[in-house]
What we know:
α8 links the parallel β9 and β10. The chain is globular. The strands form three sheets. Strands 4-3-7-8 form a four-stranded parallel beta sheet. Strands 6-5-10-9 form a four-stranded parallel beta sheet, with helices on both faces. About 35% of the residues lie in helices and about 20% in strands. It has a domain of about 90 residues. The protein is α/β, with parallel strands linked by helices.
Amino acid sequence: MMWKTFNLSEEGAMQIIVSFTVNHDIQMTYVYINPVTDRMTDSKRLEFALRSHQMKRVFCQENWPLKVLKEYSTLVEQSDKTVLDTRCPMAVRLLRTLGLHDMVEAPIAPILLSCAKELSHREDLVDGQIVVTTPCMALAEQGNLLKLPRTTFVTAREFLLEIGYHTAKRLDSSPIPPGFFDSLAIATVSASGKEEIAEKAVSLPKDTELFEVLFCPGGCHNGDGV
């Protein structure tokens, strides 16, 4: 089996292909299914497809959404500038192009990448390779740049096609919608979609503590990898 992820420059001018081939000397391939892909698929059918390819689904042991939420809360408390949510690499690229307008990028890894780091260092998974599915090409690219041990990031679309799962459904809403930070008592402005991000970036209220951004309108279910 082989997966290819595409590394695009911010201008979209350069394309680098990174290929991954299953090492058949290692008996098991462990697969992490991201929340968007999980919602798109039938659990029993997916499990059957994975087993037929000598693959096993795995889950993170840490509560990474909660840990990341706490990291943002701490960062906002310590910052005297608006903190930019960096969970979505495409949104960050867009704002770098437009200008950060006196914002500071959060040095906090996206939840999916934090989960992948945990999996790549788990002792119970050292006997196999790890495949992490992503809802977009940008997250696959960012993950592969980490060069985690035995770990490859691929888009959900590529992975499902590779294992012969052809009944994934399109979602009307996202399991990762704007509003991730609503439980925090901080002044947050949320935007999704290129136009809304660009519009709000130049008109943030002065008291904005956190700018939440998702490049795909409505959330990650509209990513280019699903």
